[in-house]
Structure formats: structure tokens, C-alpha cells
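[User]
Protein folding is very new to me. Any chance you could explain this protein sequence and its C-alpha cells? I have pasted everything here:
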Amino acid sequence: MNITLNQTDSTNAQLKVALEEADYASKVDQQVKEFSKKAQIKGFRPGKVPAGLVKKMYGKSILVEQINKLLQEEISKYIKDNDVKLLGEPLPEPSQAEIDWDNQKDFEFTYAVGLLPAFNLPLDKSVEGYAVEVDQKTIDEAYENIKRQFGKTTNPETSEEGDFIYGDLKQVDGEFESKTLIPTNRVVAGKEQFIGVKAGDVVKFDIRKAFGDDNAALAHVTGLSKEVTADLNGEFEFTVEKINRTEEAELNQELFDKLFGKDAVTTQEDFDAKIRETIKENYDREADNVLNRNIIDTLVDNLNIELPADFFKRWLQVTNEGRLTTEQIEENFDKYTKELKWSMIKNKVVEENELKVTNEEVVNSTKEKMMAQFNMPEIPEELAESMNNYAQQYLQQDNGRNYINEYEQLLAEKVLAKLKEKMTVVEKTISTEDFKNLSF
């Protein structure tokens, strides 16, 4: 066997593999013998089928299978031993000569190869991060949301602003009719018509004016799609059946327990501190996500390297056959290029810093996420074994894809943590309002 790599330019090469009969013959003969032991052919007892007959009937398929297996093994070994940095995998050349599997003894296979260049990480670039200051307005809004979310629904006789009014909505000169719930705070024009009404009252209004010509609001009220509501207009009648009102929850021990667990918080002061802490943690997490994106964008945008673009497009086409068209690849090629660059950066950081993720880290991370879903701060001793089994079962699902996804996420987190150590982060203090208005 002879494998050669001929570089055609800075980013492309041709890989040739020459096979002689001696390279594969023993593997084919061994597979024929194994097949003979298992084959069930009429007229022969199991395990007694002559090897010659098996070779005559199945020899070509066995030959093709063993040569393909040998090619995969030897090409992978060659790439690893010679430390060849490839984009994806070698792709068979379409111009390759037709193979005569019945008569050929020696074979030559040719592959197109995309080469990835050596590069240095642009770690001298600074990135912007944010320290979010939680103001009193944000705290007050959180309190209002909590009171509404955990409040009790009542059905008063007469409506007030902020109520939800349930009833029958009917088009005056049309066919539309449906039960619906009208939120009074979504009414833009003529809101006073919906205030002070009670069961049995009928309200007449222009639906497009009432909801400010907002197709999304119209879709919400009618249950129709935004496309359909674009043509919806005219007079409507709404017959009131019931008033729904949410009374704000009281800030008492019952609410404290619902939010943070039994007796975790027992005083108003502790509740205030916990709410502020929780909001701060949420904003810190969001700010960290923004910093991560800024690091990725900064490194990718400043990684000026030449890539095998034509090979990359062909590789995307081959590996996504039936899922990506040529037009889609062209349209999104900048995005695919950025993803490739980030993958190269990650691999370099992992290699240079010998970053690893252990199986224990994967399992523990999975269990932590499961606990968070059930709002469990820690695993009770009696559930420890069951939780471990649940995590293992989850990670094995989808042929281990869940394990790979968790592993890759943890590895990416370690890469970003290492990059934060090596790059200059310029932290800017910002209010919650300004942070929410940032365009990401």
C-alpha cells in the first residue's frame, strides 16, 4: 500500500492511495471464512457452506466492504501520523476511473483534500463586557410581576381597567363569530367601552381601530393568523359573559415558600435580598453570555486566514445531501465560514492548553440540569442512585448524541473561560434598562 499527499495550492491537496492484492487479500479471505460459518444456503448444513461458493456468490460485496474498511483505517492513520490539518474528511474525486471489481487486482483511489492553515490566535484584541447595575425600578417591576403571576383569579360583576373580559365576538356584517378573551389593557381606542361592563352587556366597536391596527393583537383576540387578520376590519359586537380579574398575591410566607422553598426565606427583608440577588444573578448570566459572544465575534473577525472555500462548499453539499441545496450553501456561506473559524479556534485552545472534560463532569452537569428542572437545590440521599440512573439513560439516548452535546458544551465553556484569562476584557457598567436595549 502506498499513500501520497500532493499539495496543489496553499489550501488544497490530492490524496492518492494505491492498493495491491497483498494489502487486502487476507482480510477478504478471513471474511469469506467467517461468512461460511454463518451462511444459510439451501442444500448445505449451517456452517458447512464451501468457501468457494460463498466467494462466488458474495465475493464482490465482501471485497468492496473490506477495501472500503481498509481505506478508512489507513487514511485516518496516515492523517494522524503525519498531523495533517484537514477540513472535514477527504472526498472521493468525481473524475476517478470506473473500477472493475470483477477483474481488477490493484486499485488506485484519489481524494480531494481541504487543508487548514496554521495560525496564531489574535489574543491581543480587547473585548467589551458589561457589569449590570440593578436599579429600584427593575426591583419594583419584579415585585409587580410576582404579585400578578401568583395572584388569584376572581370574577367580579363589573369590569375595571386591566381585567380580561370573556364573551362572544361577532362580526356585524360578516361571518366571523367566536368565543374570546379581550384584555382591556390591549385596547387602544375606545377603552372606556370595556370599562364598567357586566355579564349580558353588548359592546359595539371598530375592531381595527380598537386594537391600534395591530395585526398581532388582532390575531391574539380572534385566534386567526396575522395574515388573515391583515384583511379583517369593520364593526364587531362583543357580548360579555364573564369578567376575569387577577388579584395581586400578598407578600407572605405562603408566597415566600412557593418561590424559594419551604422556610428558605422567612422575613420581608430576606425576601427583598433574595429577589435582588436572583435578579442580579440573571443579569450577570446574561452579561456573561454577551461577553462570550463578543469574544467569539472578536476572534473570528480578526482571524485572517485563507480557507479552501470551493472544497468547503462541496463538503457541505456532500455531508448534508438532501438537507442543503447549492443555493442555501451560497446564501449562508459567510455563516458557515464563521462557524468553521470558531471550531478551529476552539480546537487550538483545547490543544494548546490540554483542556479535557471527564465523564464524571458530563454526568454531574446533566444531573444538575435535571435538578434545576425540578427546582431541587440538592439531591436527597434516597434519590441519589435514581438520579444517577436517569442521567445515564438520558446521555445514552439518540445513540449517545445527548452525551456528545453535553461534552461539547462543557468543553466550549472551558475554552471560553481560558480565553477570558488570556484576553483583555474592558468592563462597562450599565443600567438594566440600557442593557435590555442593547442590540445583540
